[in-house]
Design a protein that fits this description.
Number of helices: 7
Strand content: over 45%
Distance between the termini: 29 Å
Number of strands: 17
Order of helices and strands: HHEEHHEEHEEEEEHEEEEHEEEE
Length: 405
């Protein structure tokens, strides 16, 4: 199965768990991690240090459709069934081509910050490991996987019906980010910040912007023809599969090297952010993250179909519960005979990561404002504490998060 991954990508769908920032923490300016979501946050601390691997660990997995959940996916499936039963359960949920799946993860390896001699500036730097995936539900392709050329199940092949391949979208990555950020208090009511990032890529899958229309037709002699017209499909990957589509992403030493610039996959990025207040009780903020560019080396695997083709064969008719073997046999037959013009290459390619936009507008009601000072309560400890302002308040407002693909 793994050795013929590309054909399954074209004719089926898969959900890979791999990995982004935690939207829930956005706007909590009292936390050091707020700088990772908004370099221009209103920084109140004088310094911070994150405990490596513990101070910020985040994972999220979800889908746009609420019916996509553990119980519905695993209902009635047994361990020995593999993934086919789960795929059938997902197919039976009735998802649309507008549904999508996403997952994000982030582990903080280093996070340090301190205020400079000029107290208006706050410097931060660190290392984070980011991973993510994003996939659209390929409704028509899934229907073909289970029903072949008889999607409406009337016993007759669907002649002359065009099926657009642009619904096939999958993006996944594992990247180490080394960053240095600066935050400046421009005025009493406004702060701005920026973060420069150096990226090292360990794993990547990029399969999007697919063009092409599949249809079943007949020639003058009545023979069936499987046509793909206007095709331009490119599958780029690094650290995931080899030229024979065998999975290679399970080598910890190779992944570790690639995470620290030893694999030749390097990039640059920029994060921007602002925050401020219209008055004492009305606050706003915004950040634009992951304006990043990354180039993967010539060790990458690239699979391309960039020319129209037609294959003479009977209508597709996969047997129930035998769909994977059926399609894999078709792939072997077409590729080995040269009927499928699939090129396998080793060349570098470029990736622009998915930018993310955060915005927030909120109203703050101060419940209590105190001034407090005194001596330490601990015996033999000489210190004086002096809180110029200690506030209790409640907030409410609007917050948005957008990711661009």
């Amino acid at each position: 199965m793994q050795q013929r991954l590309i054909f399954i990508v074209f004719l089926s769908f898969s959900i890979f768990c791999s990995p982004q920032n935690n939207q829930i923490l956005y706007g909590f300016d009292g936390l050091p991690q707020s700088l990772s979501l908004n370099p221009g946050a209103d920084v109140q601390m004088d310094k911070h240090f994150g405990i490596p691997l513990l101070s910020n660990v985040y994972f999220q997995l979800g889908a746009s459709n609420s019916d996509f959940n553990y119980n519905n996916i695993y209902a009635g499936t047994e361990e020995e069934e593999g993934n086919l039963g789960k795929l059938r359960n997902i197919f039976n949920l009735g998802l649309s081509k507008d549904d999508f799946f996403t997952g994000n993860a982030q582990i903080e390896l280093l996070n340090i910050g301190f205020r400079l001699r000029n107290p208006d500036y706050y410097l931060s730097f660190g290392i984070t490991t980011d991973s993510k995936f994003y996939a659209k539900y390929p409704k028509t392709t899934a229907e073909m996987f289970f029903y072949g050329d008889d999607i409406n199940q009337d016993g007759e092949p669907d002649l002359g019906v065009g099926r657009d391949l642009n619904e096939l979208v999958f993006i996944g990555e594992l990247v180490n980010v080394f960053y240095v950020g600066i935050n400046k208090k421009v005025s009493e009511n406004f702060s701005a910040g920026a973060r420069l990032k150096f990226l090292s890529g360990a794993m990547d899958v990029d399969f999007r912007n697919i063009e092409g229309v599949y249809s079943l037709g007949q020639n003058a002699f009545g023979d069936y023809l499987h046509r793909v017209n206007g095709v331009n499909a490119v599958f780029n990957s690094y650290g995931t599969v080899d030229a024979n589509y065998a999975f290679i992403g399970d080598d910890p030493s190779k992944i570790a090297q690639d995470l620290f610039f030893l694999g030749g996959n390097i990039g640059l990025g920029l994060d921007l952010g602002i925050s401020g207040r219209f008055n004492e009780n009305t606050l706003f903020s915004a950040s634009l993250l992951d304006l990043d560019y990354l180039k993967y080396s010539a060790e990458s695997q690239n699979f391309e179909v960039t020319q129209d083709f037609a294959i003479q064969d009977d209508p597709f008719d996969p047997p129930f519960e035998g769909e994977p073997s059926y399609w894999l046999d078709k792939y072997d037959e077409y590729y080995e005979s040269g009927a499928l013009p699939l090129d396998k290459l080793n060349k570098s390619y470029q990736v622009f990561r998915s930018p993310k936009l955060y915005t927030e507008l909120k109203r703050r009601n101060i419940l209590t404002k105190l001034k407090k000072s005194g001596n330490s309560v601990f015996r033999n400890v000489r210190s004086i504490y002096n809180y110029d302002r200690y506030e209790l308040y409640e907030e409410f407002g609007l917050q948005s998060f957008t990711e661009f693909h």
